[in-house]
Amino acid sequence: MTIHTFKTVQYAEAHGIATITLNRPDKRNAISYELIEDLIAALKQASGSAAQVILLTGAGQAFCSGMDLDNLKQLTGRTHEQNVEDSETMAALFRSLYDCPKPAIAAVNGPAIAGGTGIATLCDFTLAVPEAKFGYTEVRIGFVPAIVSSFLIANIGEKRARDLLLTGRIFSAEEAHRLGLVNEIVTPERLMPRARELANQLMENSPASLQATKKLLSSYTREQLDRQVGQAVEANAAIRQTPDFQEGVTSFLEKRKPAWTGNWKTEK
After folding, report:
1. Per-residue pLDDT tens for 18-27?
2. Which residues are known catalytic residues?
3. Distance separating alpha carbons of residues 183 and 108, to the nearest angstrom
4. Is the predicted pLDDT of residue 266 greater than 70, yes or no?
C-alpha cells in the first residue's frame, strides 16, 4: 500500500484503487485554499499512478461543508485580480475532477454543500448515504454559483439547474438521486464497501478503453466548457466587488439576516 498524507488530504493506493480522503474532520472538510491545492495534487498523483480507479470521500461526519470560514473572512478584502486568481483555482479543481483520465467515484458520507456539492457530483459516479445533504447555496450569501453551473446544466438540464442555483435551497440525497446527481443511495455501513465493489467492477474492464472513453466524453464538451468556465471565472470575481457580496459574507459570519442593497455596481 502507498500512503501519502498532505496537510488537508490523505492519499492511499492499494489493489488498483487510489483513495483520496478530505481530511479536515474538525472543520467538516471545509474548502480552504490549502485543501484545493492538496486535492489537485492528490488527483494528479492518482492520475499518474498505477491505480485504475479513484475513490474520493471525507473524514468524519461530513463530505465537504463548503468554504472554510477563515478563508471566507479574507474574501471581502481581496482585489479583483486576486478574486480572478481564486476563481481560476477553483475552476482548475473542478476541471481536474471532470477531466480526470481515470474513473472517479465519490463516496458522500455526509453533507456536501456549495463547492462540496460540486466536488461530489463532478465525479463519474456519486454514491451517498441517506443522510447526505446537498445545495448550491452561493446566492444566499451574495456569491454566484458560476463555475459549477455549466457542469450542472449538462447533468440535469437548464430548468432544474435554475431551480437549484436560484433558490440556493438544501436538498436531500433522495432528491439528488431523482435528479441524476447521485447514482446510488447506500447505508453508511455499506458506503465504502459498495464504492470498492464498483471500483472492482470498473477494473474488470480494459484500462486503456476506460481512459479512451473518458477522453472521448470530455472532448465533446471541452470547447463549450472552456468558454463557459472563462465567463464563469469573470462573473465569480465580479460579484465579489459588489456591496451585496460584502453584506452577504458579513451577515453570514455575524449570523444575522442580510440587508441586501440590490446594487450591481462594483466597489472600487
Report:
1. 999 999 999 9
2. 138
3. 11
4. no
